[in-house]
Amino acid sequence: MAFDLPPLPYSRDALAPHVSEDTLNFHYGKHHQAYVNNLNKLIEGTDHANAPLEKIIQDASGDSSKAGLFNNAAQVWNHTFYWHSMKPSGGGKPTGAIADKINDDFGSYEKFAEEFKAAGGSQFGSGWAWLVLKDGKLGIRKTPNAETPLTEAGATPLLTMDVWEHAYYLDYQNSRPNYMDAFLENLVNWDFVNQNLADAS
Predict the structure, then answer these.
(1) pLDDT for 137-146, tens place per residue?
(2) CATH topology of domain 20-201
(3) Is it the case that residue 65 has pLDDT exceeding 80?
(4) Confidence of residue 121 (pLDDT cuts 50, 70, 90)
(5) Are 58 and 151 within 8 A, CB to CB?
(6) To which H or E segment does residue 140 belong?
(7) Is residue 1 predicted with pLDDT exceeding 90?
(8) H helices of the chain, where?
(9) How much is the pLDDT for 195?
(10) Binding site annotation covers 84?
(11) Does 79 carry a binding-site annotation?
(12) Bridging pattern class, strands 127-134 and 137-144
């Protein structure tokens, strides 16, 4: 059963001016679609043809002979999670359970934001910054290329920020810091993060 490109949870112009419609036309409409198309070609006629996306990622992780399968499957999952990590008029300080958890585990929202941006800013080349829950405690991760915390035992992704250049180059050119500031101040979907935290608890 082939995978489809999951629908965006908002219109392609809904995140403007922080992420433009042009960026979503390329990032979602071209890049994400290409990962879906490539994945479908790779699983056709194989044992993974009817497997859930998460199982394909786990099965291919760490196996160099399945690098193409892992990269495309993980990028389908990572991007879908990323779109839901944002919403129109999002960002700013969180509310609800995640706000309390961030204060408990990082000391303050400001400290979390500092560490999260440090992870995104220090990821050389392409990759992702993540907020995860592991062993009941929040943590920050950065992963290169298509890597994902899904493959880390006991870690549950709560939020991600894409720091591949195609996520921000049309809007911010080479200024990843400006994009990361805009992501935290105007885009984060804390409702999604709270739901992920509740599901993991």
Answers:
(1) 999 999 999 9
(2) minor pseudopilin epsh fold (3.55.40)
(3) yes
(4) very high
(5) yes
(6) strand 137-144
(7) no
(8) 21-26, 33-43, 53-60, 67-84, 97-106, 109-122, 169-172, 176-182, 190-200
(9) 98
(10) no
(11) yes
(12) antiparallel
Q: Which tokens go with 116?
A: 């999260």
The whole-angstrom distance between residue 196's C-alpha and the CA centroid of its chain comes to 13
Contact at 8 Å (CB) between 163 and 128?
yes
27 is in an annotated binding site: yes
Average pLDDT, the chain: 97
What pLDDT is stored for residue 201 in this prediction? 81
> Residue 89 has which token pair?
């008029």
Q: Is the peptide bond between 17 and the residue preceding it cis, with omega within 30 degrees of 0?
A: yes
Distance between CA atoms of 183 and 164, rounded to whole angstroms? 14
Q: What is the average per-residue pLDDT within 181-195?
A: 98
Q: pLDDT (tens digit, 9 = 90+) per residue, 150-164? A: 999 999 999 999 999
**201 token code pair:** 């608890």
Residue 116 makes CB contacts below 8 A (sequence gap 6+) with 129, 131, 140, 161, 180, 184
48 is in an annotated binding site: no
Residue type, 41: K
148 φ/ψ angles, rounded to the nearest 5 degrees: -145, 145
